[in-house]
Amino acid sequence: MHSEVPMKIIAHRGASFYAPENTKAAFNLAVQFGVDGLEMDVHLTKDNQIVVIHDESTGRTGVKNFRIKRSKYSTLKKIDVGSWFDQKYKGEKIPLLENIIDSVPDYLDLYIEIKCGTEILNAISLLIDKYNNRVDRFIFFSFNYEVVENLKKLFPNIKVLWIVEYGYNVPNHPKMYKDVYKKIESANLDGISTLADLTHCIRMAKEIKKHNWMWNVWTVDNPHLAKQFMNLGVTSLSTNRPDWIINHLNA
Question: The domain 8-249 is classified under which CATH number: 1.10.3210.10, 3.40.50.1220, 3.40.800.10, 3.20.20.190?
């Protein structure tokens, strides 16, 4: 692990600059690079399995196109999601979240982004029960405020962040900062995950520090920019090139 830098380095969808995103290959490579944590995206299948994939369908990364919520895992697990990236990754499959948890060291933080709605919460509940000895390393987060609000209500001891992108899920207006802070407080969330927009982050830094919130920023592949976020007080930074960022910050 890299321990010289106060800001944790999180591999965004694994080491996704070098290997196909959200696959075992990408996560295993990130572990070799010495990251502090892994970030992954999850959806719920038709048969209530939590799968690791970014999009709501397999078309972009798979050789066949299926909607996740309308497909059983027995169908999805047969799809090659590696060869689109490079032929040497042909045969990489869509993993279950459990597959990833079981295959990586338990000292890693796991940033689990929920890409669907509240329908996944029952499956998350079962997951938390199964891995109750590791949940202190789980950080759940989502753009969907209803999801994070309900998840924190169900599991007050689990770390939960709200993902905020001004102009996407929050209006791009200075007055909205206060509304964002109020929502985080009212749901008793543990912090915030923000787009790597330096202007917005500079404006938010003081308030985030005041509340001692966890603060994740995504996605940064530029070492100079990473250092600026570290100096702002960002607690974890998601990157596609964790080796590059770690080497430069430790230099």
Answer: 3.20.20.190
